[in-house]
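Predict structure. Chain length: 245.
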Amino acid sequence: MTIYRKAQRTSQQTAALLTLSEVSLGALLLVALGASLPHLVSSLFAWGIAMGLYLLIAGLVMAFWSGGPLGWANRVTLMRAVLITIVTAAVWTPLSPLGHWQWLGVALIALLLDGVDGWVARRTGSQTAFGARFDMELDALLILLLCIGVMLKTPAGPWVLLIGCMRYGFVAAGWRFPWLQDALYDSLRRKAVCVWQIAALLLALVPWASAPVAPLLALSALVALTCSFGVDTLWLYRQHALKRR
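Prediction complete.
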């Protein structure tokens, strides 16, 4: 029994080291990309934000992943995490015109990779609950960061943060109303709204977006998201009511 426990412990340690090696490679990728984009990560403050956020993400991956190699789909998602940390750093620092375009480009690549990790997971048969949650939380973080960018860099006011905070409010409401935590059906409408949120916020941030256009784009994202959450909340409530009968 003691030999079995030692073997099990050794196996767990090996798996943890494999995961640590992969998230460490992600940190090296962040350093390489940050160094190649000096208009985005241009100060110690920006580097601190990017590295601090990546260390937080890496710590959560280490805590919640079962251990061992991440798999190709999660590696793509981890690459998205690296890009999002760079987007985060640039939100809080002044950007040159070239830096602004680079910022939008990095955010756009992060958006495009959102579809790649799911495709890779399906092609390789590596779908996991962790991977789906990892992907979803990065989507939510990217949307919140874009909202902050729109608030800081366009005439849109703080109300735009409602777009980024709505999902977190929904999760918080689930603590009070547990039926909100029930599984939802797969929905093309929900995916389309998520993509439009990011696309609308990116369009609002392009340099040629005029003062009235940026808030209108953000408002369209907020309306679409509110309607989508309303549909899901109503469906969950009806399912809850049926179970109580």
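Summary: The two ends are 50 Å apart (CA to CA).
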